[in-house]
Amino acid sequence: MEKRMSEKVNKVLYLILSLLLAIVFWLYVDDALGNPITRELKDVPIEFIGEEDTLPNRGLMLVDGEDITLDLSVSGPRTIVSNLRRSDLRVQVDLTNINAAGTYQRTYTYATSDNINRADISIQGSRSTITVQVATMYSKQVPVSVSVVGEVAEGFIYMTDRLVVEPAAITLSGKEEDVEQVEALRVVVDLAGANGTVQQDFSYEMLDSQGNVVQNEHIRVSDKRVNVTAPVYVIKELPLVVKFKQAAGSMEEDIRYWLEHDSITVAGEAANLETIAEITMGEVDLTTILSDVDQLVEIPIPAGCVNLSGITSTTLSIRFRGLETRAFSVSNISPIGLSSGQRFSLITNSVDVLLRGPAAELEQVMAEDIRLVVDLTQFTSNGMYKVDALVFVDGHEQVGAVGSPPSIACKITS
Asked: In this predicted model, what pLDDT tens digit does every residue of 5-22 receive, in sequence order?
């Protein structure tokens, strides 16, 4: 029994193998003898050369014929034609020699993919020419609007006034009736949970006058996407700080001071604000302030930041404690910085100097304790000069000069 089954299986396998060999041999002979076959390809799309560049550059556009297709009859060796795909064939119509609007009859040519030798096949189209209509292109610019949705992360703020859209308008081109449908372009930006500035390219929607989306693939656009920068800044409260330049009789411990506004709220890029803990109002030279004062001071805003408080200045109030002032006429004037060959003579023999300090110590100061020093290092030529003098009060560490430095007129000779 087993032997009979084995013989039947072998016979079937032999018949299948014989059939396969016969088919292969027949295909080989058919191809070798050059017996062609014919295959019909329906609705092959036409490629219009110059539609996307040449015509628009001349202010023209293809309005009829662009969706047309062609039926093709392809003949050739079976091994080529039977494996032919639609994508292996292209029908091309050249529009580059059209310079004006009108209706034109154009012949076409064929192109094949690289794996097919054009000379091995014969192609016949369902008609000899293609009718195309070219019209003047209508164009207009439409502004881009941004619709922001979503709430930014806590502690951050979306800076609407600093929104940047590039380009801010798009040029639409096509048939006038198509282009005129579009009244606006809308970009939707989702800022939900954003903790930093969002900058990226977005697609947009075309809208009509009623806000409905216009979908028209025949409208050409100058840009398919727009770049949107939506600034999202971190919010931070910064204390206002005053620095003081001190000297004898004008020490910080001798005053009481305060600011009308001692902090403001700002917003900025997180990277800009992460290292900023306070705003320094600048340095106040206490020696230039002669008495209690209420002084308006501008608030400097860190670079790249926005003042959310809207407070641009604050009043600095300074009150002196336990200090008095007293004027002296001083004639003890000496130079420094003269070269060995230079001689110094005074034109100004005495000046008034205002000193400040504790009342008890100020009472002990004598005119001879005060000396003025004129630094002439920078003057290398003979002549007459007027120079600010440095004031020294010897033996009285808590007393110092205030107000403008005294000016001394002097003469330098050889």
From this structure: 666 666 667 677 777 766
